[in-house]
Amino acid sequence: MLQNVVVSGITQRKIVFIVSPEMNPPDITIRPETRSDHEAIHALIVEVFRETYGTGEEEAGIVDQMRQETALGPYVSLVATRHDALVGHVFFSPVTLAEFRNVPVCTLGPVGVRRPWQRQGIGSQLIRNGLEQCKKHGYQAVFTTGSLEYYPRFGFAPISTTRLFTIFRTEHDMVLELKPGLLERVSGLVEYPKPWLASL
User: Fold this and answer.
1) What are the pLDDT digits (tens) for 111-139?
2) How many domains is the chain built from?
3) One-character DSSP codes across 50-103
């Protein structure tokens, strides 16, 4: 059976994720966030992570702060709604290859779906749509930290198969190549902006 991660992120002490069956949810709209969504997105992230792991403010804070880091590159923030009610969210934001700073890359996370709407494939829809937006923005690779059983369905591979490593240095670090051949020619540290450092 296909599995779908509906919550993924990093807390101060551990990598967290939930796995659930993938389905086709009814009446779900995936769209870019608007400024009027910011408060509701913050509340959703806190709710989802607090219910599951007792965290939330840290993950929501990363999103709030990374929206302000526009000099690093564009971010992608998508919401899933049903009848105008926010039920899910995914966030992609820029990171940097320390030895190849001219190569645009980003990271996926956090992603979350409210409990009543989990196990319906909403997380997968958010991620797939977000990856398409990342391509349009010119990102050449996407990094994430999460389930080694789940993310490969989107094309992610363990970062250990490359010559790269992240500041987290975990076995759950993964990368998706958006520009063919990129991972054969880059190496070194993947640097995350300051808002992420609190999760170390």
Assistant:
1) 999 999 998 999 999 999 999 999 999 99
2) 1
3) HHHHS--HHHHHHHHHHTT-GGG---EEEEEEETTEEEEEEEEEEEEETT-TTS
